[in-house]
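Exercise 7. Predict the joint structure of the components listed below.
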Amino acid sequence: MENNVRPASLERITSPALAEAFIAEQIAALRAQIGDKKVLLALSGGVDSSVVAALLIRAVGRQLVCVHVNHGLLRKGEPEQVVRVFRDELGAELIYVDAVDRFLDKLAGVADPETKRKIIGKEFIDVFAEEAGKLDGIEFLAQGTIYPDILESGPVKSHHNVGGLPEELNFELVEPVKFLYKDEVRVIGKALGLPDSMVYRQPFPGPGLGVRCVGAITRDRLEAVRESDAILREEFAKNGLEGQVWQYFTVVPDFKSTGITDGKRTYDWPVVIRAVNTVDAVTAEVAELPFALLQKLTERITSEVKGVNRVLWDLTPKPSGTIEWE
Ligand code: XMP
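Solution:
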């Protein structure tokens, strides 16, 4: 398809000046396409949808309606950051949907990884479509499609992204970054003034912490994943590893082991630390972490995270392990 090929005239966007030129061009194009109509966007808080939101806010202001679905599987502080940045700082029209109970109820007792993904994906579309159905006058649907998604060489989104276009929503698509590579999207995001924590965010799977709470998701184990992930990210940042390691996170498996806390025997979960480097996510190697950092993480996670008495380090490259545990 001709309009799915990156135009030869589009220079690689590597500098703020090139970003500004792209932004100005896109703003004009978006205004021409959208006119005085309304455009809807599922805003996850990931790099791509955030950049599209920021571009559209510049182009059409509150004609953009963002929907942020909190499915309960986001990292600590993420829903709050989306609301703060987009509603409070950029003045966007943002609908925040608290769908936590709805997702967790649907997922209760479901242990199979693919079934979990399907439930999360379907529920996401249902919630989004329901919200869209409540709105009048929407004619466009914006999406954070990027060039690797089109080329289908992107291992991340091609085989398992959550969401996608709700088929029952028959809107014209608005895809302002569809010819850009990830690094270019980041340059644009930076030029649009988005916070570094959004622009340089590590990849985060659509099903979120759901694939890191191994087996059937329970609220307490999910909280353990979320809290341990927050500690891991904080310690990586303190140790200058943010942006140095490609992807790092914690996993809470569905088994327990004995331990001792304050002289009392415990029977609690372990937290697994996973940190990998890769170029394209097809293969990956384990990041070499300083032993002192691993000790610090162990000390903090076992003392601060409820229900956890042990910390393990995943030493497995991909292959044989995938990056995620499910
Ligand atoms: P795996 O675990 O397959 O992951 O080695 C490769 C990369 O893809 C991400 N990933 C996902 N991304 N939806 C996504 O959008 C998913 O269901 C999903 N599963 C894995 C993973 O985080 C890694 O970056």
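Discussion. Residues 212-313 form a domain with the GMP Synthetase; Chain A, domain 3 fold (CATH 3.30.300.10).
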